[in-house]
Amino acid sequence: MSAAESFKDASSDSVKNSTASTDNFSLTKGDADHDFTRLASRPGFLIRRLHQIHVAMFFEECQNRKVTPIQFGILSVVESQPGLDQTSLGKEIGLDRTTTADVAKRLEERGFLQRRPNPTDKRMWQLYVTDEGSAVVAALRDGMARAQERLLAPLRPAEQVMLMDLMGRLVDENHQYGSPMRAL
Protein backbone atom coordinates (compact mmCIF):
# COMPACT_ATOMS: atom_id res chain seq x y z
CA MET A 1 0.00 0.00 0.00
CA SER A 2 1.38 3.40 -0.92
CA ALA A 3 1.80 6.20 1.60
CA ALA A 4 -1.03 8.09 -0.13
CA GLU A 5 -3.34 5.06 0.21
CA SER A 6 -2.25 4.65 3.82
CA PHE A 7 -3.05 8.31 4.40
CA LYS A 8 -6.62 7.86 3.13
CA ASP A 9 -7.17 4.64 5.10
CA ALA A 10 -5.59 5.92 8.30
CA SER A 11 -7.45 9.22 8.16
CA SER A 12 -10.78 7.43 8.35
CA ASP A 13 -9.43 4.91 10.90
CA SER A 14 -8.09 7.62 13.18
CA VAL A 15 -11.54 9.19 13.44
CA LYS A 16 -13.10 5.80 14.27
CA ASN A 17 -10.36 4.87 16.77
CA SER A 18 -9.70 8.22 18.39
CA THR A 19 -10.57 6.84 21.84
CA ALA A 20 -8.43 3.70 21.66
CA SER A 21 -7.51 2.27 25.06
CA THR A 22 -3.95 1.48 26.13
CA ASP A 23 -5.10 -1.13 28.70
CA ASN A 24 -3.66 -4.62 28.18
CA PHE A 25 -1.58 -3.36 25.26
CA SER A 26 0.21 -5.99 23.22
CA LEU A 27 1.73 -5.46 19.81
CA THR A 28 0.98 -7.94 17.06
CA LYS A 29 2.11 -7.76 13.44
CA GLY A 30 -1.32 -6.41 12.51
CA ASP A 31 -0.99 -3.72 15.19
CA ALA A 32 2.48 -2.79 13.95
CA ASP A 33 1.16 -2.47 10.40
CA HIS A 34 -1.71 -0.35 11.68
CA ASP A 35 0.71 1.84 13.68
CA PHE A 36 2.79 2.41 10.55
CA THR A 37 -0.38 3.19 8.62
CA ARG A 38 -1.25 5.80 11.24
CA LEU A 39 2.26 7.26 11.00
CA ALA A 40 2.07 7.26 7.21
CA SER A 41 -1.09 9.35 7.47
CA ARG A 42 0.85 12.18 9.10
CA PRO A 43 2.40 14.71 6.73
CA GLY A 44 5.16 15.55 9.21
CA PHE A 45 6.20 11.90 9.41
CA LEU A 46 6.30 11.55 5.62
CA ILE A 47 8.24 14.80 5.21
CA ARG A 48 10.78 13.76 7.85
CA ARG A 49 11.11 10.30 6.29
CA LEU A 50 11.55 11.77 2.81
CA HIS A 51 14.23 14.09 4.22
CA GLN A 52 16.06 11.08 5.70
CA ILE A 53 15.91 9.35 2.33
CA HIS A 54 17.22 12.44 0.53
CA VAL A 55 20.12 12.84 2.97
CA ALA A 56 21.06 9.17 2.44
CA MET A 57 20.93 9.68 -1.34
CA PHE A 58 23.04 12.84 -1.02
CA PHE A 59 25.74 10.97 0.91
CA GLU A 60 25.64 8.09 -1.54
CA GLU A 61 25.90 10.36 -4.58
CA CYS A 62 28.51 12.62 -3.01
CA GLN A 63 30.76 9.75 -1.97
CA ASN A 64 30.33 10.73 1.69
CA ARG A 65 32.76 13.67 1.49
CA LYS A 66 31.79 14.58 5.04
CA VAL A 67 29.79 17.63 4.01
CA THR A 68 26.11 17.62 4.96
CA PRO A 69 23.33 18.92 2.72
CA ILE A 70 22.99 21.97 5.01
CA GLN A 71 26.72 22.67 4.76
CA PHE A 72 26.54 22.26 0.98
CA GLY A 73 23.58 24.67 0.91
CA ILE A 74 25.45 27.26 2.94
CA LEU A 75 28.56 26.99 0.79
CA SER A 76 26.47 27.23 -2.40
CA VAL A 77 24.57 30.32 -1.26
CA VAL A 78 27.68 32.10 0.03
CA GLU A 79 29.60 31.25 -3.13
CA SER A 80 26.86 32.93 -5.18
CA GLN A 81 26.65 35.91 -2.77
CA PRO A 82 30.16 36.66 -1.44
CA GLY A 83 30.14 38.86 1.64
CA LEU A 84 26.64 37.81 2.67
CA ASP A 85 26.16 38.30 6.40
CA GLN A 86 25.22 35.39 8.65
CA THR A 87 21.77 36.78 9.50
CA SER A 88 20.83 37.18 5.83
CA LEU A 89 22.23 33.73 5.08
CA GLY A 90 20.02 32.19 7.76
CA LYS A 91 16.98 33.91 6.29
CA GLU A 92 17.99 32.82 2.79
CA ILE A 93 17.98 29.13 3.72
CA GLY A 94 15.58 29.07 6.69
CA LEU A 95 18.01 28.43 9.55
CA ASP A 96 17.94 30.10 12.94
CA ARG A 97 20.84 32.38 13.92
CA THR A 98 22.45 29.90 16.30
CA THR A 99 22.47 27.05 13.79
CA THR A 100 23.72 29.32 11.01
CA ALA A 101 26.56 30.61 13.21
CA ASP A 102 27.48 27.08 14.35
CA VAL A 103 27.57 25.63 10.82
CA ALA A 104 29.50 28.65 9.50
CA LYS A 105 32.03 28.28 12.32
CA ARG A 106 32.52 24.57 11.56
CA LEU A 107 32.95 25.30 7.84
CA GLU A 108 35.48 27.99 8.73
CA GLU A 109 37.40 25.54 10.95
CA ARG A 110 37.57 23.12 8.03
CA GLY A 111 38.94 25.84 5.74
CA PHE A 112 35.87 26.02 3.48
CA LEU A 113 34.57 29.41 4.60
CA GLN A 114 35.98 32.68 5.88
CA ARG A 115 34.07 34.83 8.36
CA ARG A 116 35.11 38.47 8.47
CA PRO A 117 33.69 41.27 10.59
CA ASN A 118 31.50 43.68 8.64
CA PRO A 119 33.53 46.91 8.27
CA THR A 120 30.53 49.10 9.13
CA ASP A 121 28.99 46.90 11.85
CA LYS A 122 31.50 44.83 13.84
CA ARG A 123 28.67 42.77 15.37
CA MET A 124 27.92 41.20 11.98
CA TRP A 125 29.98 38.59 10.18
CA GLN A 126 30.34 38.54 6.41
CA LEU A 127 30.98 35.18 4.79
CA TYR A 128 33.24 34.20 1.91
CA VAL A 129 33.87 30.77 0.40
CA THR A 130 37.56 29.86 0.22
CA ASP A 131 39.17 28.24 -2.81
CA GLU A 132 38.96 24.91 -0.98
CA GLY A 133 35.26 25.52 -0.26
CA SER A 134 34.62 26.34 -3.93
CA ALA A 135 36.33 23.09 -4.90
CA VAL A 136 34.01 21.19 -2.52
CA VAL A 137 30.93 22.88 -4.01
CA ALA A 138 32.10 22.07 -7.54
CA ALA A 139 32.84 18.46 -6.59
CA LEU A 140 29.44 17.96 -4.94
CA ARG A 141 27.16 19.95 -7.26
CA ASP A 142 26.50 17.08 -9.69
CA GLY A 143 26.01 14.61 -6.82
CA MET A 144 23.42 16.88 -5.21
CA ALA A 145 21.59 17.17 -8.54
CA ARG A 146 21.63 13.37 -8.95
CA ALA A 147 20.28 12.89 -5.42
CA GLN A 148 17.43 15.30 -6.13
CA GLU A 149 16.67 13.60 -9.45
CA ARG A 150 16.66 10.17 -7.78
CA LEU A 151 14.34 11.39 -5.06
CA LEU A 152 11.78 12.60 -7.60
CA ALA A 153 12.33 9.82 -10.16
CA PRO A 154 9.32 7.70 -9.09
CA LEU A 155 7.05 10.59 -10.13
CA ARG A 156 6.11 11.54 -13.67
CA PRO A 157 7.47 14.97 -14.76
CA ALA A 158 4.09 16.66 -14.25
CA GLU A 159 3.86 15.12 -10.76
CA GLN A 160 7.36 16.37 -9.94
CA VAL A 161 6.32 19.91 -10.84
CA MET A 162 3.09 19.52 -8.86
CA LEU A 163 4.92 18.19 -5.80
CA MET A 164 7.40 21.07 -5.87
CA ASP A 165 4.55 23.58 -6.26
CA LEU A 166 2.59 22.05 -3.39
CA MET A 167 5.62 21.91 -1.08
CA GLY A 168 6.40 25.54 -1.95
CA ARG A 169 2.84 26.53 -1.07
CA LEU A 170 3.00 24.70 2.24
CA VAL A 171 6.26 26.45 3.11
CA ASP A 172 4.92 29.86 2.03
CA GLU A 173 1.68 29.47 3.98
CA ASN A 174 3.31 28.11 7.15
CA HIS A 175 6.61 30.00 7.25
CA GLN A 176 5.68 31.76 10.49
CA TYR A 177 6.20 28.48 12.36
CA GLY A 178 9.81 27.99 11.29
CA SER A 179 12.94 30.05 11.28
CA PRO A 180 12.51 33.33 9.42
CA MET A 181 13.13 32.81 5.74
CA ARG A 182 13.24 34.94 2.64
CA ALA A 183 10.10 34.46 0.52
CA LEU A 184 10.48 31.74 -2.11
UniProtKB/TrEMBL annotation:
Residues 1-27 are annotated as: Disordered. Pfam families: MarR. PROSITE patterns: HTH_MARR_2 (PS50995). The lineage of its organism: Bacteria, Pseudomonadati, Pseudomonadota, Betaproteobacteria, Burkholderiales. Residues 43-172 form the HTH marR-type domain. Residues 12-27 have a biased composition (Polar residues). It comes from Bordetella avium (strain 197N). This is MarR-family transcriptional regulator. InterPro entries: HTH_MarR-typ, MarR/SlyA-like, WH-like_DNA-bd_sf, WH_DNA-bd_sf. GO terms for biological process: response to stress.
